[in-house]
Design a protein that fits this description.
single chain, Metallo-beta-lactamase, Chain A, 7-stranded mixed sheet, 11% helix, globular
């Protein structure tokens, strides 16, 4: 079986009709019985996540893992929709009353899905790398969307942001970047470095 990726909800920084609305891009990956939701954060109602999952014939109880790219509420708010899942962050995974310390770097959720440490937007950022038949897809908050920001105003160490962008862009077989608040994009010469 080859890993597959879907976008459950395409996020945004502010809606044209409501400047104070922000939503996370919420992703889904499946590989060898592992069902992962990435960044189930702010969306315009839980159905924005649950409906696309239902269309894939995946129940919330079937989700095995939830990955949080970082601990900002706009990427974590709906993690509780998946009560049987392990929840992953930069230094551990959690389920029920378990707290299992581990390094995120290289942690494999399946044969085709792994975590890498990519601090930049925050000091605790991680990215999810999914190897698909068409190449690598990376869920990351190193970019908010395809165009911005060139300089992240929240980055505690801007040079680290740029180093980790370069690291992601150099991944073998990179095909698609799924940013924190926008549509997936293929990196190119105009991608902020």
């Amino acid at each position: 079986m080859v890993a597959e990726v879907r976008i459950l909800f395409e996020g945004y920084l502010s809606r044209p009709d409501a400047e104070d609305r922000t939503a996370s891009t919420v992703g889904f990956a499946r590989d060898e019985g592992v069902l992962i939701v990435v960044d189930p954060g702010l969306v315009p109602g839980q159905d924005a996540i649950l409906r696309p999952l239902a269309e894939l014939e995946v129940a919330p109880d079937a989700i095995t893992d939830v990955v949080l790219s970082h601990h900002h509420p706009d990427h974590t708010l709906n993690a509780g929709l998946f009560p049987k899942a392990r929840v992953h962050d930069h230094w551990a995974w959690y389920r029920d009353d378990l707290w299992i310390d581990r390094e995120a770097e290289g942690f494999e959720l399946s044969p085709s899905i792994r975590l890498i440490e990519t601090p930049g937007h925050s000091a605790q950022d991680i990215s999810t790398v999914v190897e698909t038949a068409d190449g690598a897809v990376v869920f990351t908050h190193l970019w908010w969307n395809a165009q911005k920001p060139a300089e992240d105003p929240y980055a505690p160490e801007p040079e680290l942001l740029h180093e980790n962008r370069a690291r992601v862009l150099a991944l073998p077989g990179l095909r698609t970047i799924v940013p924190g608040h926008g549509a997936p994009f293929e990196p190119g010469p105009d991608t902020p470095r």
